[in-house]
Amino acid sequence: MGTEIRKPLSVLRAEFISQLTELINASSLPPFIIEPILKDLYNDIKILSQKQLETDIRTYEEAKQKLMNSQQKCE
User: Fold this and answer.
1) Measuring CA to CA, how many Å separate 30 from each of 16, 24, 26, 61?
2) pTM of the complete model beyond 0.85
3) How far apart are CA 45 and CA 63, in angstroms?
4) Measured on CA atoms in the order 25, 26, 28, 29, is the torsion positive or negative?
5) DSSP character for 75?
6) What is the pLDDT of residue 1?
7) DSSP-derived secondary structure for 44-58
8) Residues 6+ apart with CB under 8 A from 15
9) What is the pLDDT of residue 70?
10) DSSP state, 28?
């Protein structure tokens, strides 16, 4: 029937942190090399997160407007 069990976000987060830590430790790179890499990644993620928020707000507002329009047509 296609029943799919999804991992909770908290579990995905913990696994991600663990895997990232393992990758950093296995890289043998010194912290002064890793730090700017992580800063760049953080900045990229921050931009993507803001874009996602803007998209979500726009989608939500459009859905609200469609609902209001359909309710007005029924009146």
Assistant:
1) 21, 9, 11, 47
2) no
3) 27
4) negative
5) -
6) 60
7) HHHHHHHHHHHHHHH
8) 7
9) 86
10) T
What the block records as the tokens of 9 is 């976000």
Q: Please, are residues 24 and 35 in contact by the beta-carbon 8 Å criterion?
A: no
pLDDT in tens, 23-63: 999 999 999 999 999 999 999 999 999 999 999 999 999 99
Q: 9-34 burial by CB neighbour count: b if 16+ within 10 A, else e? A: eeeeeeeeeeeeeeeeeeeeeeeeee
Please say if the pLDDT value at position 12 is more than 90.
yes
Tokens of 56: 């979500």
What is the rounded distance in angstroms from the CA atom of residue 24 to the CA atom of residue 31?
Answer: 9
Amino acid letter, residue 45:
I
Please check whether residue 34 is in contact with residue 24, taking contact to mean a CB–CB distance below 8 angstroms.
yes
Residue with tokens 């799919």: 4
